[in-house]
Here is the input.
Amino acid sequence: MNNKLILAALLLPASIQAAQQSQKPDIVLLLADDWGFPHAAVYGDRTVKTPTFDYIISRGVLFTNAYCAAPSSSPSRAAILTGCYPHELGEAANLWARFPAGLQVYPDLLERNGYQIACEGKGWAPGDFAYYGRKFNPAGRSCDKVADLILSAPKDKPLCLWFGSHHPHRPYKEGIGKQNGINPDSIRVSPNLPDEDKVRGDMADYYYNVQVFDSQCKEIVDALKQAGRLENTLLVMTGDNGYPFPRAKANIYDEGSHIPLAIMWPGHIKKPFACDGFVNLLELAATFYEAAGVKPDKAVRGRSLVPLLEGKENGSQRSEIFLERERHANVRAGNAGYPSRGVKTKDYIYIRNFHSERWPAGDPKYASQLAPYGDCDNGPAKAYLVANEKKYPTLFELAFGMRPAEELYDLKKDPAQQHNVATDPAYGGVLDKLRKQLADWMKATGDIRATDPDTNIFDTYHYAGKI
Here is the structure.
């Protein structure tokens, strides 16, 4: 054989590899609905099985301190899409909102830069994205099945895919967990819930639905492998907010805001590792922009995770996380929400409740299909706690009772965040420091509550759900 031909043949694999590395990566988000921390085997949960999540971290990064921007589907998803805090997004700070015109979302920009975008299942939702003229969901153009699209898509066109599972959102078929081999007796019940058979059964049903989500993700990962695309895919698996139980979802305590997160990106993540620094899901937008080589038209708040994924930044340097919520469901007179802001560090969480005269989980007497306490999803665990208020008065009060204007929890002594020490003089210095830290963040990010704490602007926005 000609020496030049031999040399060309030897160089061919290297040239193919170089071409693959220079090609824009596929970007795939696998998003659960109401999947909370630590409900995955790798976090130490001894009951739930999450083999797809385990596979992703075996080749990627496991995040142990990932948080949603708001513990409510629509605002959390809006923050992921825009890279901005919910309070910056007008109506989109609320659940069942209208999606404002003019918000920059990463799927739109990636499509303009050569990506094929698609969304299966729950995108930005629940809410009305069409009211201001948007033609398709902000999460992407609707498709029946992401896995099928992966197998049929042109090899030379990068993909930006959003898979929004409806699991493990309620309602559940009661007993489905036990019927599928989940042992309720093996479950570690949260200190914020009664350790009773009814609650354990409800948890088992939730775990079954987490496992359904994991199996759905496996189908997509398998499709990426079959299509030869996995090695050039930035793959993210996470949840939009905490699990749907009392004092969890719709609360900025850990059980409402702390979520599982794993990211895999072959060729960029050199070896698997765990990151214990704080990460906000809104940082995914900046991450996707950098990975795709796209500069956003408008600034985003979140920092790109690319340097961390590539080992150029120490994730432990992220030492705090900011949390917030506005209106969740329509469960108070005047369509009022329960506005809160918070800052969490390794040792403390400080929360400011701007309308502490309101019921935090919803007015028990408000005429709504979700009442009583309609910000907490209906289910057996909630029903049991409401029916057994006298048996579990402390847990009932923590879940549904009124709250003070300020809350402070010492996480080393009180990881379940049950004992408010905001009025304890021994914590005066900590309280002042975190109060200022939160106020500075609110001012820096243009939060209207920094200058008008009692504003009702978010309560005036249209509620697109049933009342």
Observations:
- The chain has 14 helices and 14 strands.
- Confidence is low (pLDDT under 50) at residues 1-21.
- The chain has two domains: 23-319, 322-460.
- Residues 197-226 form the longest helix (30 residues).
